[in-house]
Predict the 3D structure of the following.
Amino acid sequence: MNDIATLTKDLDLARIPAHVAIIMDGNGRWARQRAMMRSEGHAEGVNSVNRITRFSSDLGIKYLTLYAFSTENWKRPQAEVDALMHLIGWTIRKETPDLVKNNVKIHLLGEIERLPESVRQDLEAGREATEHCTGLNLNICLSYSSRWELTNAARKLAEKVKRGELSPEDITEESIQAELSTADIPDPDLLIRTGGEERISNFLLWQCAYSELYFTPVLWPDFDNEAFVEALRSFQNRERRFGMTSDQVKANDNPHNTID
Ligand code: IPE
Ligand code: IPE
Ligand code: MG
């Protein structure tokens, strides 16, 4: 009944966003509503990760960027951090064969050095096993924050200037972009946040300059393919103007028209 053709019947499959980024929020509330432990909410959230990754791959999305653990999340109670780290390692070990089968390539974004050694090994093994894959690029953000990333980029550029490899006048948007963990990745077209909060929480601040934002009250463990299609539908109903006028955008869409 809910096969991909039925689910996507209202979508323009030629205009699926190339890059979707998701702030996966609401696991704790999902658990609390059921009198369960927060860690059980995170475990349930993994099912959503698997489902949305698979569906994104089937839809032909090229980049899916998931905010799994922020720099600020290190401030959570140690027991929750430990449970999350354990879950991350376990999930990557368990899911790697399926990711390979589905031609999904893993990229790791963030201060991975801060993660426990065993989890880093699991992540690295997953990354290596999928290195040859050419389908969906799955960017997993762990111990990631945008301010960390931008601070890092500033430091790397300053080092280049100090070594005499770069002059300050040559610092451009492109040279900053080149020092980000998303250097080779196009900016997100669509940024989704589940869980009802309408904030960015230090995620991809540079890269989301022109992303379409979509906030939904659906908690991450409940975010199913239908909810994802709704976000894509909303995206397809918007006009991305990038500072231009609506008329200009329409003219650009139609090669026979000229821009005023
Ligand atoms: C998102 O769910 C997962 C992580 C931040 C790791 P939360 O754990 O933030 O869930 P809520 O916001 O408390 O419901
Ligand atoms: C954002 O969720 C981080 C991730 C989803 C990994 P949080 O739950 O940590 O965000 P805040 O604290 O409510 O802003
Ligand atoms: Mg939260």
Notes: Residues 113 and 120 are 8 Å apart (CA to CA). The longest strand covers residues 63-70.
